[in-house]
């Protein structure tokens, strides 16, 4: 009878130890899995943030390029307008000078003719 009791007690402790080991291993697995899940979530969030930052930088660069192209086009248009105005002014000045020269020549011819007729 004593041997049976000892064997039963040993069996009980053995099962108790087995249950404790199983519970501890389940707790360890849960802890490790949650740590791994947290790390994966952190990595995914970091990757998303990096992608968003890269997209924002690309958009800013595109906007800057578009603005500089617009500014360059405006400057070129202004320069062309100024050149056209200068050319028009030069043409007007040349026409005025030609008209003045023609008037002077006509006046000289008329004066000479007048002098010739008087004499």
In words, what does this structure look like?
Helices cover 98% and strands 0% of the residues. The chain has 1 helix and no strands. The protein is mainly alpha-helical and 119 residues long. Keywords: Membrane, Transmembrane, Transmembrane helix. The chain crosses the membrane at residues 6-31, 38-71, 77-110.
Q: Provide the succession of SSEs.
A: H
Shape: rod-shaped
Mean pLDDT metric: 93
The major pleated sheet works out as: none
Strand content: under 5%
Quaternary state of this entry equals: single chain
Structural class: mainly alpha
- What is the overall number of helices? 1
**In whole angstroms, how far apart are the ends?**
176 Å
Number of strands: 0
Low-confidence stretches: none
Radius of gyration: 51 Å
Give a quick precis of the structure.
The chain crosses the membrane at residues 6-31, 38-71, 77-110. The protein has one helix at 2-118.
List keywords for this structure.
98% helix; 119 residues; transmembrane helix; membrane; 1 helix; transmembrane; mainly alpha
Topology:
Blueprint: H1 2-118
